[in-house]
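Researcher: We're teaching a course module on how sequence relates to structure. For the next exercise, students receive a sequence and then see the predicted structure as tokens, so they can try to spot secondary structure elements on their own. Here is the exercise chain.
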Amino acid sequence: MLMYTRCLVKVFLLSMAILTLPNIATATIIFRASPTGRSDIYIMNDDSSHIRQLTNTLISEYDPLLSPDHKHILFRRDLGGEGQQLDIFIMDVDGSNERRLTFHPKNDGSPTWSPDGRHIAFSSSRSGNREIHIMEIASRTIRKLTKNEAGEAYSSAPNWSPDGQHILHEQIIAGGGRHIYITDVNGKKTRPFLKGPQPHLNGDVVISKYAPRWSPNGQHVMYYEAHLRFEPARVVRLANHLIIVDERGRNPKQLNIPKDWRIYSAHWGNNGTEILFAAEENGLQNLTNVRNYDIYRYRNPSGKITQITDTPHKEFDPHWVSGALPVSPKGKQVKQWVEIKVEK
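Model: And here is the predicted structure for the students to work with:
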């Protein structure tokens, strides 16, 4: 079985097709992929060169995120399988020196870095309700940031502002979908972030907003919006969008992504003019549970989309940083993917 798994990974690395810009690496992409059915963390240049597999366990890793100083990667690991025990880990950027940060029996997830790299924020139900918590990495001291009434609201998916003063997060309101809220880092004030009319119900359609992300300069916020209809035996996804607003939650702009694509996750480029996202083309028409997400590059404001990965497997959670990382992981074989240039 181990030899078979290694063969699958080898085929994945050697046969992965790249649809990209001219072959000049200008940034590094960290992402997760699942050629073997589980999720592992990978790293590559944005011209598809120098791909390395950073984790290789019998369980899955999710949500890789590079530290502000580009020396460490934050991620969560499914220790129990099937989401039974999720904890947060950290490792060096070359995949070495792995450390476990959380040990609570309740699931911890959606970790994000503070701008100075000394703290992380994450979501956890360790206090009984799902809330945002903050950990000081050096001491492992944890404090609860949000304070919801049990059964009425839950907080998840935090994202730290570049000035270090605020945390954006999802606010799940019982019977009312997902909203975008903002909380001061001192925990004294939590309020809705988006301004203007915010319909969350349109007849039998629920409009939910997910995964807020500050731009690197703090002047904009990107989030994901899904239009869902709940039927007796299934949930139908009618539409999904990536939307950008200003730092005050105003002036929404919908990105020009084909309307039948199913979007999974997105992240800003460090210069704020480009966005990486994972999506499945024609995904809204695909009603099966068999998904094939790839990574794409969106140029703002032109709206030009360039496909980065094209495999029969899934690639998710791309995180993009400007410049190549000055490391070559010891003992990790470097691969070159096939390059095919196609722009949409």
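Model: If you want an answer key for the exercise: The chain has one helix and 28 strands. Confidence is low (pLDDT under 50) at residues 1-5, 17-24, 333-343.
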